[in-house]
Amino acid sequence: MSQSGFGPAIRQPVAQEVFSELRDAILTGRLAPGDNVPPERELALSFGVNRYSVREALHRLQHAGFVRIVPGGRTTVRDVRATAGLDLLAHLADVAGEPNPSIVRDGLEMRRSIGREAARLAASRGTAESHARIIASCIDYGDDAHPDADRSFWREIVESSDNFAFRLALNSLERAVDSWPDSMDPVLAADRADLLPHAPLAEAIAQRDVERAADLADAILSQAVDTWAALADATS
Predict the structure, then answer these.
(1) With bands split at pLDDT 50, 70 and 90, how would you rate the model's confidence at 3?
(2) What is the 3-class SS of the chain, one letter each residue?
(3) Entry pTM
(4) Is pLDDT of 231 > 50?
(5) pLDDT at position 70, please?
């Protein structure tokens, strides 16, 4: 044991691979809600790994809401729509292939709802220091040296809202966006280009104009929702 009180780190890449394979099978429907997951021994033989790695993967699946383990009995697939949390977005983003159109729509609508309420809370709860950071972050729009200006701007608003759940949701949305750049870059182009200027929103928050801040945030974030709807209509 080291002086810090921690033991040596143990990597478990094999368990991660088993977890990912089973998770993907659940998300793609190969294993449906109510199905029995094969027993540990059978999975260990199929994957060519030891049963400890399989057991670790199954426990991770249970923690994420994908399966239910009955001690000494079966492991069954759960309906993730009823059991998973916001981290399901990140898991969906990890699954190979193009994003599901309805999932993208739902994510963009959640982004708009959270952004609107975060702006409202930032205006009412935020400190003078957090408001100053929001205003300063507007300067980076259009600056090639700050390609993540839009992301930084909304992070500042969410931080100023003092709502931890909003931050967790933002993390999941950002991971999904990063996993689907070809699909998401055109959808978020107007936001990133400051087509509807973000400076008035920052000013409304700093002035503690709660309703104006909420309305401006809604208008800005509606751009992506409307763009996705137009793209979906064009391809249907």
Answers:
(1) very low
(2) CCCCCCCCCCCCHHHHHHHHHHHHHHHCCCCCCCCECCCHHHHHHHHCCCHHHHHHHHHHHHHCCCEEECCCCCEEECCHHHHCCCHHHHHHHHCCCCCCHHHHHHHHHHHHHHHHHHHHHHHHHCCHHHHHHHHHHHHHCCCCCCCCHHHHHHHHHHHHHCCHHHHHHHHHHHHHHHHCHHHHHHHCHHHHCCCCCCHHHHHHHHCCCHHHHHHHHHHHHHHHHHHHHHHHHHHC
(3) 0.75
(4) yes
(5) 85
